[in-house]
């Protein structure tokens, strides 16, 4: 059967930027909440597993991988922020969440951040020949309680770094972080979109904040 | 409990199979209002550039709590309705007092569209899913490749370009039913003037906690005596 419609693409780029920075005993992860297609803004991303939000500007792509037991606080070890093609991002979040739940059933504990990092890499490579068009950063605390950030490409190659950014704003943010983070400094991000969602993980648990952004 | 999959019947020879749409519906618009969701779509289905069918219902109720509106290939919409029918049937057969709400139906649709996209054989539709359950209003959209989101107002196709700017300006929380209908009619009128696939026969559907009402088909009043329409080429001689 011949291909009939060459113009159809299974991918779309819904934009978005994410950043993560690791500290001595904390990790900060942030992402914008705007979704777009072509040059049009379309909406704000639907909620991640578990939470129901009424306002616009819901959690775009930060998938809270420790959320399933309903527990917060110490139990939550990893946070994944993703940009790119929203349908693939969502599918990826669901796959990882399901695998994490199975892990919890089998091992009676949460996955550590380095373990989740490996799982994300393997999950992405599994679809090496029809990739998830998702650009991810994973942030959290490692087994010693130190902040860790892992950065990925779309097919799963990853490395642990002190900070990273992915997505449409990455080319703007990365040089800025390179300049500022020769030594640790407060989180300052140039960004656009409806809101910026910032999540901080440290020994006390997880804290979430929102900042309004330029609306253009 | 295995739900039937229409692609199950062993057609493994054609791994890649994208499509052209043949009979298509144009925009659907949905908004949240005070009591629930309002959704509007015209009743046209085009066969390429011919406005072939003029009594196609493109907004349908789903179960007790949801409304679905579709643009794109009508036959794919009919298949989606069949799958949803089966979904609701199995849900009812549990007979446990629970019923699938709009969020659940939206999630099901998203998975269905995404899975077909993964097989390179998409359902060629953009779907609007709205509903109310336990006082919570929900309005979401799914595209043919599985991109999905929810919002206070959504539109498919040309509606994205022509209707959403109007909605962004004039939508607000707690619209009354009358104001909501007026707003939708304003958007549909613009689409009627400017979208060549639009027909002047539309239905507006409403869903609230109490249930679904789909209006009788009706036509919008149009006015073609604007000065700009009188001598349209006066600013560009030789144009048409």
TrEMBL record, chain A:
It comes from the Eukaryota. It is found in: Nucleus. Pfam families: Proteasome (PF00227). SUPFAM superfamilies: N-terminal nucleophile aminohydrolases (Ntn hydrolases). One of its GO terms (cellular component) is proteasome core complex. Gene3D superfamilies: Glutamine Phosphoribosylpyrophosphate, subunit 1, domain 1. GO terms for biological process: proteolysis involved in protein catabolic process. Keywords: Cytoplasm, Proteasome. InterPro entries: Ntn_hydrolases_N (IPR029055), Proteasome_sua/b (IPR001353), Proteasome_suB-type (IPR023333). PANTHER family: METALLOPROTEASE TLDD (PTHR32194), PROTEASOME SUBUNIT BETA TYPE-1 (PTHR32194:SF2). This is Proteasome subunit beta. It comes from Escallonia herrerae. The lineage of its organism: Eukaryota, Viridiplantae, Streptophyta, Embryophyta, Tracheophyta.
UniProtKB/TrEMBL annotation, chain B:
Keywords: Cytoplasm, Nucleus, Proteasome. Belongs to the peptidase T1B family. Non-catalytic component of the proteasome. This is Proteasome subunit beta. GO terms for biological process: proteolysis involved in protein catabolic process. GO terms for cellular component: cytoplasm; nucleus; proteasome core complex, beta-subunit complex. It is found in: Cytoplasm; Nucleus. The keyword Cytoplasm applies. It comes from Escallonia herrerae. Its main location: cytoplasm.
């Amino acid at each position: 059967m011949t291909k009939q419609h060459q113009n159809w693409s299974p991918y779309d780029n819904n934009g978005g930027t994410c950043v993560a920075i690791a500290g001595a005993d904390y990790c900060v992860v942030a992402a914008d909440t705007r979704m777009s297609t072509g040059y049009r803004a379309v909406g704000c991303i639907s909620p991640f597993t578990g939470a129901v939000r009424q306002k616009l500007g819901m959690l775009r792509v930060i998938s809270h991988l420790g959320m399933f037991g309903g527990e917060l606080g110490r139990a939550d070890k990893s946070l994944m922020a993703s940009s790119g093609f929203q349908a693939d991002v969502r599918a990826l979040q669901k796959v990882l969440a399901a695998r994490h739940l199975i892990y919890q059933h089998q091992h009676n504990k949460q996955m550590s951040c380095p373990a989740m990092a490996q799982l994300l890499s393997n999950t992405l490579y599994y679809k090496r020949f029809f990739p998830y068009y998702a650009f991810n950063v994973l942030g959290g605390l490692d087994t010693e309680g130190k902040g860790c950030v892992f950065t990925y490409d779309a097919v799963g190659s990853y490395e642990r770094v002190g900070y990273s950014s992915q997505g449409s704003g990455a080319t703007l943010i990365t040089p800025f972080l390179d300049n500022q983070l020769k030594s640790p400094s407060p989180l300052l991000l140039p960004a656009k979109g409806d809101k910026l969602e910032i999540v901080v993980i440290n020994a006390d648990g997880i804290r979430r904040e929102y900042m309004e952004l330029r609306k253009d | 409990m295995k739900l039937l999959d229409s692609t199950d019947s062993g057609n493994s020879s054609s791994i890649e199979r994208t499509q052209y749409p043949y009979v298509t519906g144009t925009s659907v618009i949905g908004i949240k209002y005070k009591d629930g969701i309002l959704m509007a779509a015209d009743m046209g289905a085009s066969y390429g550039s011919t406005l072939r069918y003029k009594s196609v219902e493109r907004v349908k109720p789903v179960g007790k709590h949801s409304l679905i509106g579709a643009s794109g290939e009508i036959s794919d919409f009919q298949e989606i309705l069949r799958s949803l029918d089966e979904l609701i049937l199995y849900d009812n057969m549990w007979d446990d007092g629970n019923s699938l709400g709009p969020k659940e139906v939206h999630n099901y649709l998203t998975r269905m569209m995404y899975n077909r996209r993964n097989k390179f054989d998409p359902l060629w539709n953009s779907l609007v899913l709205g509903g109310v359950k336990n006082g919570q209003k929900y309005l979401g959209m799914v595209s043919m490749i599985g991109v999905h989101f929810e919002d206070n107002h959504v539109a498919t196709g040309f509606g994205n370009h022509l209707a959403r700017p109007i909605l962004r300006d004039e939508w607000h929380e707690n619209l009354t039913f009358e104001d909501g209908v007026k707003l939708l009619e304003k958007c549909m009128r613009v689409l009627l003037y400017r979208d060549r696939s639009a027909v002047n026969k539309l239905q507006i559907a409403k869903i609230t906690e109490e249930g679904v009402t789909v209006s009788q088909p009706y036509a919008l009043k149009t006015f073609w005596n604007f000065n700009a329409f009188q001598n349209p080429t006066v600013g560009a001689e030789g144009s048409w």
